[in-house]
Design brief:
about 270 residues; alpha/beta; three-stranded mixed sheet; two-stranded antiparallel ribbon; about 15% strand; flat
Length: about 270
């Protein structure tokens, strides 16, 4: 699988930045997007444009860029906003896996408080909660001291009451998975089936998004959370109808390796 690389070309006006980008595009060996990025702190949010008359974008197109755009941004909004541009989404025909959503933090807090209160009102709710947080052995030990569990239950209920009377948090933006991709964040092997060069380009774009699940800190925290693991994921782009496809061979080898690891050992020499 080819990883998607992000390359920043910087320098003063007239230094030859566009010429260098042209040289890379003319010598390209695959799918390349070119964006002219302009920092403008007078803006409150980022903007994207693709004017056909812009001379710099025309040079990118003529040199063979797969997609081009002008991205103007304030420093406070540049990183995440760039991944939401049409330029970054269109390479997969709009079927992007990572999306930005508004998060209703107030509702989340209410739901958590309601669920915890229902648990604590149950006869062994405090013990169950302790087991979920620190494990069954410690919860079993704590059940021998019911006065401690009762004190913990009272403290937690008091904390819930405090949360309910506090000003509700404002909604925030966070990363999420588009419909149809639920569960992919837990996969250890992802196979993207493609047919032809055009589909392969889109497949490699999707593979890059999957890579962000582990490598992009904001994406990782929003989707996998503090319990998530940054264990590397095997991602292959393959034509599964072609027995000689390198990606297909790699995927099969990865599955066979997992089967060997999980197989029970043979007992030899027994009657």
């Amino acid at each position: 699988m080819r990883q998607r690389a992000f390359i920043h070309v910087g320098g003063p006006r007239g230094a030859g930045k566009t010429k260098f980008v042209e040289a890379v595009l003319e010598d390209k060996g695959g799918f390349i997007l070119a964006a002219r990025c302009v920092c403008d702190d007078s803006l409150t949010r980022s903007r994207e444009a693709t004017p056909k008359t812009d001379p710099e974008l025309r040079r990118y197109r003529d040199a063979g860029a797969s997609g081009v755009a002008i991205f103007t941004f304030p420093r406070s909004d540049g990183h995440d906003a760039f991944f939401e541009t049409d330029l970054m989404s269109d390479y997969s025909d709009g079927k992007t896996m990572l999306v930005r959503r508004k998060r209703d933090r107030a509702k989340e807090e209410r739901d958590k408080a309601d669920a915890l209160e229902r648990l604590l009102r149950q006869p062994d709710g405090a013990g169950e909660f302790l087991g979920q947080m620190v494990g069954a052995p410690l919860a079993s030990f704590a059940r021998r001291r019911p006065e401690l569990l009762e004190k913990m239950r009272g403290d937690l209920l008091a904390g819930i009451a405090t949360v309910r009377h506090a000003p509700p948090p404002k909604p925030t933006q966070h990363w999420g998975l588009a419909a149809g991709y639920e569960g992919i964040e837990h996969a250890q092997l992802v196979v993207i089936n493609v047919h032809g060069d055009r589909e392969r380009e889109r497949g490699e774009g999707l593979a890059a998004e999957i890579g962000r699940l582990r490598k992009d800190e904001a994406v990782f925290n929003d989707i996998l959370g503090y319990r998530g693991r940054k264990t590397p994921v095997t991602v292959v782009v393959a034509n599964l109808l072609d027995a000689k496809d390198p990606g297909r061979k790699k995927a099969i080898a990865r599955v066979r390796r997992a089967l060997r690891v999980g197989a029970p050992e043979k007992n030899e020499g027994t009657d």
